[in-house]
Amino acid sequence: MNHSDIAAMDVDEQHNEDDDPFLQFVDYAISTCKAYSSGVTPAILLSELSQAWAENQRSGNSKKKRPECINQLQKKHKRVKLPNTITIDSIYEKNFLSLTSVLEVVIVDAFLLPGTNFYMLTLGDFWSSNTIDLYLHRRFYDLADLTNGILRKGREAFLTGCYLRTSGGSGRLRLLPTEYLLIILDEDEDDDAMLLGAQFCSDSLSSISIDAVNQGVSYSLYARIESIGSLEIQGKFGSLQRKQIDLVDNDNFRVKFLLWGDQVVLANLFSVGSWLALDRPYVSSSADSTLNSSEEICLEYGSVTQLYMVPFVRHEEQVPVASTQNHYQGSKLLTAVDPSQGPKVSQVTLPCDSRGAIDFSNYPFRLFVADLRDKMTCISIYGVVTNIKKINNQESTFSLRIEDITGGIWAKLHFSKSWSLRKISIGHTIYIAGLTCSLAKHKRSQVHSSFWNQE
């Protein structure tokens, strides 16, 4: 046997080793052991092996297909993305995930890592072909029963505050446990409706008592998110971020839900108008929370608190809007308009706010008085002040008669501070934004604005 034959055999042996799946797996296991400087526990090794096996199964199908459970939910998915939402596909593309990023996901699978008691969730979303696995935080383990748990296949959830972990061997990304997971409920689903009725409708915001809490009573509450605000508190240890969520229930009783420090990212999952279900929130007094409020109690995100939400879905409505802009353009006021060329009426699709009123916050052009209808919100008007009245001798409430080329309307303004009439008078041209239009008792439209400030 000559040297060339020996060299050929060596090449063949090397080629066989490269193709041998077992030898490849051994190399992978060695790289896994080296990746953990503190040593490899059985749980870590089983986790890595399970992930490598799953990745090997996925590699056999080069064309990625979105899970069927997501396709089914897609048919009735009408929510608008939250501001900080990112897709699972983008995580793989960038190999990066910010702690403030929001994931709006669907649970594709829930399982225990082989040989461990660690729960894993496989997550997908409505915009991605990839899925990603999440190590479930232990505060949610009681919801992850594999046969009848709330965190089951097909369940929607929002999460944030996630760390991204890359596995050295397979390159498959995973999400480390996060405390900030919000479970999405659908009132049209029987199971979810029963859960809300059985668990969250017996307690009301007005029934919360500090004395009862001190005796070990816990609450499950259900209320609508009315507003979300931020505040930075200065203390002896520096500044502390706080989010204040105003909640109101069906009895119009209000309570503040506070998030502190790292918890503030949880507010990225909320939306005004959505209904929030709080299971076992931490109850404290307003004084203990440094909250300047007439309310006696407030709620906080405690160590055992779990959150559910019925998201607000922005509906749209077709409304007739007169295209008066075609007739009243220009800087000169027209003294007469040809009746034969009256305002053209078109159907415009506009979103409704959380109370069902038509929301004009993104309306593309100026409204004239003739365009105004009952239940319009977030509108703006521009015209000449022709009359000013003080209402019921209140220092901060006034009515202004505002007129433009199409007509006139009374605007009722509520000021948070006293307001001087010397700042505006009859004959001034003014622009007011953020008004709401309503029909008065005499069937005439009027607009009003609450807590509108004039500096």
Automatic annotation (TrEMBL):
By what name is this protein known? Nucleic acid-binding, OB-fold
**PANTHER family under this entry?**
NUCLEIC ACID-BINDING PROTEINS SUPERFAMILY
Question: Which species?
Answer: Artemisia annua
* Cell division control protein 24 OB domain: residues covered: 29-117, 122-251, 371-453
